[in-house]
Specification:
With about 600 residues, the chain is α+β, with helices and mostly antiparallel strands. It is about 50% helix and about 10% strand. The protein has 4 domains: about 180 residues, Ribonuclease H-like superfamily/Ribonuclease H (Nucleotidyltransferase, domain 5, 2-Layer Sandwich); about 100 residues, no CATH class; about 130 residues, 2-Layer Sandwich (Alpha-Beta Plaits); about 110 residues, no CATH class. Strand 2 and strand 3 form a beta hairpin. The longest helix is centred in the last third of the chain and has 36 residues. The protein starts with 7 loop residues before the first strand and ends in a 7-residue tail after the last strand. The chain binds a DNA duplex (11 and 14 nucleotides) through helix 13, strand 10, helix 18 and helix 21.
Length: about 600
DNA sequence: TTGACCACGTA
DNA sequence: CGTACGTGGTCAAC
């Protein structure tokens, strides 16, 4: 077993290159790598090596010479120093990301990934420094030089790192390679046998792109989103006034904003607008009895009482003041004018990317502050009508696939249903999301007749969800279905059905999007030129690329061309067409 | 201090 | 038309 093999100590990276070549490592061969304080460990093809050189230098040299597929436990750990050192990685295998694909959930730490993939109870994962009261020292503690304990769990001091010696890193890398090897047959089992065969199988392609997406997440986190601080301050000032000098001034400003609303209600002087219960009572006092005070519920009463309008504008400003105000700028915007937050390549459900620091939910009013740097522009692209197109592909519905030939998918659908476009759109969305209210009923029946294959696949997912069974996305992601106590509660069953119905579409769309994004990323590095174009934002179906002005046309072409290639590869033989709206702008808000 | 709930922004 | 996410507020329980 490679995990216990004695790593070969090497003096220099040149020796390593010769050893890797001798082991048959070439372009695309899996080579696992891990960092230790005093060097780097590698594993490939039954060999392990320990090199007394830094990870960045080793990876740079080996990548240049052999361009292998780098295998690591998690891009968050291993790729971060590589990104910081600007080492270009073209192909990787993120064991944790592939684990999440196969198993579902959001595990990223090696201890959890290992336990789950070895069939061990994740609740039993040992922590470092934890005293095992049941076995006070007299049990077999095994060999401390083996990262795996006799009970099968990873040794906490290994799993939580940092590792000291390159020989340790070599064993650690070997373990990652073992997981990589174990994941291969599982991926082959994760594709629906009815899918058109591809080489490599779609789930393996997905594993590649999910791994690259984690790398992209590290890059997004490190690079940040260009933001013009002065514009941001202007916009914030417009909503909540100038930056208060101290806490007293902040409180005064807050009170002033509150009073604009409270003055309009008799006896409202002391109402706490941040307390929904008090707001509800206040509204009742002026004749509006509502179950809750959400904006959409108050919206119909706009214009009937000045306090309602004032409250709704107050809410808008309050959002800016609390979530996207001066504090937000201070916390998340660097001296270089980049807005940075933590990124993840997938969430724990359908697998969309997530971002912190408000990067994924920045209000449209603040978007004018997202400005390209001097000499640069943004190339912005978003996938048009991605979800119904994805549905056509994953369900292999030939009729719906034909509709994707139109740049506006809903117009052929409307023609086929014999209704207007808005009705057709609502019906398609209702089908994908599991409508419970509204009046798309007649059009939904039409959909069943016109696109029975697509509708049946949605219903199948819905049924599985209702039963509490996990579903798999087109690319092979397992979407675990929570099994609650309320199995007999029809409301819970219906919610699970909607969740599953939505997950197979949203999840597959996320997979296609990421495959596109990482293909674009690879294309950008090949673009050449000193100052690099980089992806600075991924927003579910939208890409924002920060590009040197003179490269803008190249990137526009790249976005279209990569989408065509990715779409053809992802939805092999389905005949589904994907479209992107692409524009070149200086401000994010100028697009569309 | 923590977790639930509310509320609201994005897709 | 519903799902998902992240964020910050208050409140009640710890």
């Amino acid at each position: 077993m490679t995990a216990t093999a004695v790593p070969q100590p090497l003096e220099a990276t040149d020796d390593l290159l010769r050893a890797l070549q001798a082991a048959g490592v070439g372009p695309g061969s899996p080579v696992a790598v891990a960092a230790a304080a005093a060097g780097t460990g590698l594993a490939a093809a039954g060999h392990t090596w320990a090199v007394p050189a830094r990870l960045e230098g080793v990876v740079r040299r080996v990548a240049d010479q052999l361009s292998p597929r780098w295998v690591w436990w998690s891009g968050h750990d291993t790729a971060a120093p590589l990104v910081a050192a600007r080492v270009n990685v073209t192909a990787c295998w993120d064991v944790a990301a592939v684990h999440r694909l196969l198993h579902g959930g959001s595990a990223d730490r090696p201890a959890a990934v290992w336990a789950l993939s070895q069939g061990l109870d994740p609740a039993g994962v040992p922590r470092s420094g934890q005293l095992d009261l049941l076995s006070s020292g007299d049990t077999d503690e095994g060999d401390p030089a083996d990262p795996v304990r006799p009970d099968g769990y990873l040794r906490p001091d290994w799993a939580e790192g940092p590792l000291r010696e390159p020989a340790q890193a070599a064993r650690w890398a070997a373990l990652a390679l073992r997981l990589h090897d174990e994941q291969q047959p599982l991926l082959r089992g994760a594709v629906d046998p009815r899918q058109p065969p591809s080489r490599p199988p779609l789930a393996v392609l997905t594993a590649w792109s999910e791994s690259a997406a984690e790398l992209l997440a590290v890059e997004l986190q490190s690079g940040g989103l260009p933001l013009d601080r002065d514009t941001a301050v202007e916009l914030i000032t417009g909503h909540v006034g100038p930056r208060p000098a101290d806490e007293t001034a902040a409180a005064a400003s807050r009170r002033e904003r509150d009073d604009v609303v409270r003055r309009l209600v008799t006896g409202g002087a002391d109402v706490d607008l941040r307390n929904p219960a008090q707001v509800r009572d206040m509204l009742a006092g002026i004749g509006f009895v509502v179950p809750d005070t959400r904006s959409w519920r108050l919206e119909p009463f706009r214009g009937t009482h000045p306090a309602v309008d004032a409250l709704l504008s107050w809410r808008k400003s309050e959002r800016i003041a609390t979530t996207y105000g001066y504090g937000w700028l201070d916390r998340h915007v660097g001296a270089d004018g980049r807005l940075r937050g933590a990124w993840r390549g997938c969430d724990g459900a359908a697998g969309r990317m997530t971002a912190q620091a408000g990067l994924h939910n920045m209000p449209a009013e603040l978007r004018p502050a997202v400005v390209a740097e001097p000499g640069y522009v943004f190339v912005r692209a978003d996938l048009g009508q991605i979800e119904p197109r994805v549905l056509a592909a994953v369900s292999a519905d030939a009729a719906l696939a034909r509709a994707t030939a139109d740049p506006d998918l809903y117009s052929p659908v409307a023609a086929r249903l014999g209704c207007d476009r808005p009705t057709a759109k609502v019906a398609v969305l209702a089908a994908m999301y599991g409508q419970t209210s509204g009046t798309a009923g007649e059009a939904l029946k039409g959909l069943d007749r016109a696109y029975p294959v697509a509708m049946a696949s949605l219903r199948a997912a819905d049924d599985e969800g209702k039963l509490g069974n996990d579903v798999r996305t087109y690319g092979g992601r397992r979407v675990p279905m929570w099994v609650g106590a309320g199995q007999l509660d029809p409301a819970v069953a219906a919610a699970r059905g909607r969740f599953a119905r939505n997950a197979v579409v949203q999840g597959a769309a996320a997979e296609l999007f990421k495959m596109w994004a990482v293909t674009v990323r690879a294309g950008l590095t090949g673009l050449g030129g000193g100052d690099q174009a980089q992806i600075v934002l991924c927003l579910h179906d939208e890409l924002l690329v920060h590009v040197p002005e003179r490269r803008a046309d190249d990137v526009v072409a790249l976005l279209h061309q990569t989408l065509e290639r990715t779409g053809a590869r992802w939805a092999t033989g389905s005949g589904v067409r994907f479209v992107a709206d692409v524009s070149v702008v200086s401000r994010w808000s100028d697009a569309k």
